[in-house]
């Protein structure tokens, strides 16, 4: 494998790996958190961004 081919493979693989790890982390975190805590966090984000939620 040449250096250029290896760099191209890494340029495609690393973002996909990052997305997979991030996605699994989010799923794991939300699976262990209580539903009320998730609701409160989403509600606070809606208020912080100015999105109407009521």
Automatic annotation (TrEMBL):
Pfam families attached to this UniProt entry: CbtB (PF09489)
Superkingdom, natural source: Bacteria
InterPro entries: CbtB_put (IPR012667)
Protein name as catalogued: Cobalt transporter subunit CbtB
The organism of origin for this protein: Jhaorihella thermophila
């Amino acid at each position: 494998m040449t250096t250029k081919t290896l760099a191209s493979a890494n340029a495609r693989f690393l973002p996909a790996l990052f997305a997979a790890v991030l996605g699994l982390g989010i799923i794991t975190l939300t699976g262990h958190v209580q539903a009320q805590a998730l609701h409160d966090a989403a509600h606070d984000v809606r208020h912080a961004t100015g999105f109407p939620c009521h």
